[in-house]
């Protein structure tokens, strides 16, 4: 293959060799298959197409300096897919099947795992869809679980520089008792319009507030939010926020580094009090937030000088990346080596 420009990769779809599939039919999961077909033959009345009966995951594999390939917290992604599936009344793969298929997809596409020096990684996208035909709004009787991979660089065009963010008070991503806590397509559909408006205005991401009162911070469109103040790592606890595995890990690392961790309702009025803010997620890693614009008050909060990553965010970033690339001891047992064979 033509050598990819690994260090120039953004966050997009690059065709790889294979994807891995397993179908649930007649009450059970069938055989795991590996295919080079990028397309899915699907019934026109499949529930995923009409009623959004679908859930997905995102995780990464990293090639270390030592040549080893490590997957980060695959067990947590498997669990979260099950929780998303439960809420949409979908059949979900077991943790074992999920992990087996993720590893198979990585092994089959080993030549797409970016080299260590590039700073890029292999993004793994497990997808679960209702494929059974229904016309009424109800659960399908057939499902497809598939895993594809694609090499990626930074999610935001700023790379690892702080991003500008805008609060959206005119659109909501997730209802208070809705589906924000699970990783389902509908949440992302609800964020496309407001995300695009933000991009047109020059912002990299939207910060959503709680849909009911607009009093508390929820999260960004593809990442959780955290703020740091007075030696505390503060991050919203809300039913409409996706339980981010990166944030879960950062809460542990923050505590290991000596920060006090607060996972609670975070008022939007606290924004001016933070010394550092960030967006965190598998794709976003830790993207420091340089500024947050609130259109209602016509006010911009700037963090640090708005251009440099704050010292705690940098420490957290270095520790997390260090664990993922095998350079910092994985004391919590978060990584799993993928043997390429
Ligand atoms: N919040 C949303 C809405 C997301 O799409 C993601 C990405 O998965 C996250 C948070 C971060 O979650 P994780 O750290 O598990 O990738
Ligand atoms: C991830 O971080 O894995 C995400 O799912 C973000 C994505 C929606 C692009």
Structure characterization notes:
α2 packs across α3 (95-108). The strands form two sheets. Strands 1, 2, 3, 4, 5, 6, 7, 8 and 18 form a nine-stranded antiparallel sheet that branches. With 341 residues, the chain is α+β, with helices and mostly antiparallel strands. It starts with 18 loop residues before the first strand and ends with a strand. A hairpin with a 4-residue loop joins β16 and β17 (299-302). The protein has six helices and 18 strands. The structure holds pyridoxal-5'-phosphate and 2-OXO-4-methylpentanoic acid (COI).
In short:
With 341 residues, this protein is α+β, with helices and mostly antiparallel strands. It is 22% helix and 29% strand. It starts with 18 loop residues before the first strand and ends with a strand.
Topology:
Blueprint: E1 19-25, E2 28-29, E3 33-35, H1 47-51, E4 54-56, E5 59-63, E6 69-72, H2 74-87, H3 95-108, E7 121-130, E8 143-152, E9 163-168, H4 185-200, E10 205-209, E11 217-220, E12 224-229, E13 232-236, H5 245-256, E14 260-264, E15 276-281, E16 285-294, E17 299-302, H6 311-324, E18 335-338
Parallel strand pairs: 9-10, 9-16, 13-14
Antiparallel strand pairs: 1-2, 1-3, 1-8, 4-7, 5-6, 5-7, 6-18, 7-8, 10-11, 12-13, 12-15, 15-16, 16-17
The chain binds pyridoxal-5'-phosphate and 2-OXO-4-methylpentanoic acid.
2-OXO-4-methylpentanoic acid binds next to loops.
């Amino acid at each position: 293959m033509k050598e990819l420009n690994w260090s120039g990769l953004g966050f997009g779809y690059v065709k790889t060799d294979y994807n891995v599939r397993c179908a649930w039919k007649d009450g059970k999961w069938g055989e795991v298959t590996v295919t080079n077909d990028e397309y899915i033959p699907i019934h026109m009345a499949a529930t995923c197409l009409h009623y959004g009966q679908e859930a997905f995951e995102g995780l990464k594999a990293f090639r270390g300096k030592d040549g080893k390939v490590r997957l980060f917290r695959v067990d947590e992604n498997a669990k979260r897919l099950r929780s998303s599936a439960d809420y949409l009344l979908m059949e979900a793969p077991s943790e074992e099947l999920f992990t087996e298929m993720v590893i198979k997809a990585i092994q089959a596409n080993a030549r797409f795992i970016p080299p260590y020096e590039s700073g890029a990684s292999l993004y793994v996208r497990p997808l679960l869809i209702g494929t059974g035909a229904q016309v009424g709004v109800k659960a399908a009787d057939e499902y497809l679980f598939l895993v594809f991979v694609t090499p990626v660089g930074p999610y935001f065009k700023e790379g690892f520089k702080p991003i500008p963010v805008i609060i959206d008070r005119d659109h909501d991503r997730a209802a208070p008792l809705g589906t924000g806590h699970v990783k389902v397509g509908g949440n992302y559909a609800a964020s496309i319009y407001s995300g695009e408006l933000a991009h047109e205005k020059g912002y990299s991401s939207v910060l959503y507030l709680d849909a009911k009162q607009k009093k508390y911070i929820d999260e960004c469109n593809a990442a959780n939010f955290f703020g740091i103040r007075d030696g505390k790592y503060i991050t919203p606890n809300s039913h409409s926020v996706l339980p981010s595995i990166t944030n879960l890990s950062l809460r542990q690392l923050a505590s290991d580094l000596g920060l006090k961790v607060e996972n609670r309702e975070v008022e939007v009025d606290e924004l001016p009090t933070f010394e550092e803010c960030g967006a965190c997620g598998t794709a976003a890693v830790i993207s420091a937030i340089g500024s947050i614009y609130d259109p209602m008050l016509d006010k911009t909060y700037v963090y640090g000088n708005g251009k440099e990553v704050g010292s705690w965010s940098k420490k957290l970033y270095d520790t997390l990346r260090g664990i993922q690339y095998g350079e910092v001891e994985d004391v919590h047992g978060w990584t799993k080596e993928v043997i390429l064979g």
